[in-house]
Each structure stands twice: as structure tokens, then as C-alpha cells.
Fold 2-C-methyl-D-erythritol 4-phosphate cytidylyltransferase.
Amino acid sequence: MSDETTQAPPSAPGAARTAAVIPAAGRGVRLGPGAPKALRTLGGTPMLIHAVRAMANSRAVSLVVVVAPADGTAEVKSLLDAHTLPERTDFLVVPGGENRQDSVRAGIDALPPGYDTVLVHDAARPLVPVDTVDAVIEAVRDGAVAVVPALPLADTVKEVEPSADGGPEPVLATPARARLRAVQTPQGFDRATLVRAHATVTENVTDDASMVEQLGLPVVVVPGHEEAFKVTRPLDLVLAEAVLARRRKNDGF
Ligand SMILES: Nc1ccn([C@@H]2O[C@H](COP(=O)(O)OP(=O)(O)OP(=O)(O)O)[C@@H](O)[C@H]2O)c(=O)n1
Ligand SMILES: C[C@](O)(CO)[C@H](O)COP(=O)(O)O
């Protein structure tokens, strides 16, 4: 394992501490048939372990809660036991729910007292660099209640009337690209705000920050990273393997 560490200071004793919740209970339907996505390997190591290390490599993170496939908690516990992880970090494993929102809520419910900053990070983003994790944590510690890493878009985006039968879709609008961002994880939160958002918003949404927006509270963006992309479709696996191989070469492995 690469001994990647960070400049961010760990929390002082008695100070607010940071926990990371990793939703990893998805099936990975868009990736194609196989094991649950988080348990598939990248460079011979389960994607989930890469994601756990990405969080635990931040010296500010002292607890990682893994939300496992409901029928896979024992397997995930064994995986965590079988891989080298930073000793300063504690780990919990809880079963996930039907959708991402349910799984994140299960992770939040499992958090012990004493963690005031909470990251929510997709297991499907295994290669997020530690500097991005630290930048999100710092922004929360500096007073933001919700922080998302994000990147400008390379493509022009159209809003359309979705087609039910695969036919041509009428274009409704072309939002100004300069004002759009593609949002990644980890998203960072003041814990009380995240708990309130999950207790309040019941409609299905695709990220946690949008739940905070629905409370009328401010969400801020910090720079994301190209390597924090989400492994969603088969081609993403090819890119992830290439990024990992380049890192290992640079690290002299
Ligand atoms: N019931 C669910 C669904 C998703 N996730 C997690 O949410 C993250 C982002 O979801 P996505 O990339 O969409 O993963 P899947 O739901 O597995 O993908 P798909 O939609 O292709 O099945 C993943 O780490 C996934 O494991 C989860 O914990 N519980
Ligand atoms: C949370 C997220 O990764 C931010 O981009 C994304 O919304 C998850 O979407 P998914 O369809 O559940 O993968």
C-alpha cells in the first residue's frame, strides 16, 4: 500500500473530529453483471478498499463507516481485516438500504457522538486524492455547513424532454456552461446539518448536498479532481486501472 499521508493536522484531543461514511451497497448495474461494484477489484484490490484508504489517508479522518450490501456485511468486515489500513482510524460496517439515500442514512445513524464533521464518499470513487479530501474537511472546519468538490464541464449540456421510447428528444434549454459544475465526493458536512437534511428530505435525490440546499442552507464548491471520477460504466474501469498503474509506477511499485 502506498503510504500516502497529508499535511492536514489530526484533530486535537477533545476537538471536533471527522468521520467518513462510505455508501458501498450498490449493485453496479451499469457496470454489468458481476459482484456488487464496491467489491470488484482495481489493480487486484477491491474498489471499496481503495475508497476506504482514500478517506483514512487523511490524518483528519479518525472513523470510517462502511455501508455494505445488506447481504455482505460479513464479507466487508473480512475484507477490512485482510487489508492494511491506517492504525489511527476506527472502522464500522453497517448494512445498506434500497437506494443511496437509505444507505447514507444508515451510515449516519451509526455514527457515535463526538464527530462533528462528516464526509460522505462514494465507494465508486476509489481514486480521489487525499488533497481533495483535506480541502473539503478544511472548508467545513472553516465554517461551511456543506461542501462539495466539483469540476467545470468539458461538454455543452442540454436540458431535454426525456423520450420514453428512445426516439429524438426535444431540446428545452442550453444552460450557460460557465455556471455549471460536475459534482464529486467526498461531500463534507456539519454533522447536525446532514442529520437534519436526511431527516427532512424524503424525495429521492442523487446527492447529499442537494438535501441541504432543500433546507435553504448554503452549499459551497471547492475544486474537485479529475481522478475523483465515479466508476459507473465499463470504460471507467479501464481508466481507473490506467490511473492506478501510473500511480504505482510513480511510487516505484
Ligand atoms: N442502495 C445503494 C445504492 C448505491 N449505493 C452507493 O452509492 C454510491 C454511488 O452510486 P452508484 O455509482 O450509482 O452505484 P450503484 O448504485 O452501485 O450503480 P448502478 O446505478 O449502476 O447500479 C456507490 O458507492 C454505491 O455503492 C449504496 O450504498 N446503496
Ligand atoms: C453523489 C454523486 O457521486 C455526485 O456526483 C452522484 O450524484 C451519485 O449518483 P449515482 O447515480 O447514485 O451514482
Observations:
- Residues 100, 122, 183-185, 206-207, 230 surround LQXTBERG (ligand 2) (CB under 6 Å).
- The first strand starts at residue 17 and ends at 23.
- The chain has one domain: 17-150+182-250.
- The CA atoms of residues 36 and 193 lie 30 Å apart.
